[in-house]
From TrEMBL:
A Pfam family this chain is assigned to: DUF397
Residue ranges annotated for the DUF397 domain, each copy included: 3-54
Identification of the protein by name: DUF397 domain-containing protein
Length: 56
């Protein structure tokens, strides 16, 4: 798995979403609960979701 990352716009904020690349999937977790659940999406679904968010 690659390293967990969060948006550079989050700066020192701890209430963020973090992402990592796992094989051909994208993993997402809550930065304030790093031991909590992780959601994974195929790259196509993740790209569609991000496109939808950016358009909202």
């Amino acid at each position: 798995m690659s390293e967990w990352r969060k948006s550079s716009r989050s700066a020192t904020e701890t209430n963020c979403v973090e992402v990592a690349h796992v094989d051909r999937r994208v993993a997402v977790r809550d930065s304030k609960n790093q031991a909590g659940p992780v959601l994974t999406f195929d790259r196509g679904a993740a790209a569609s979701f991000l496109g939808w968010i950016k358009g909202a």
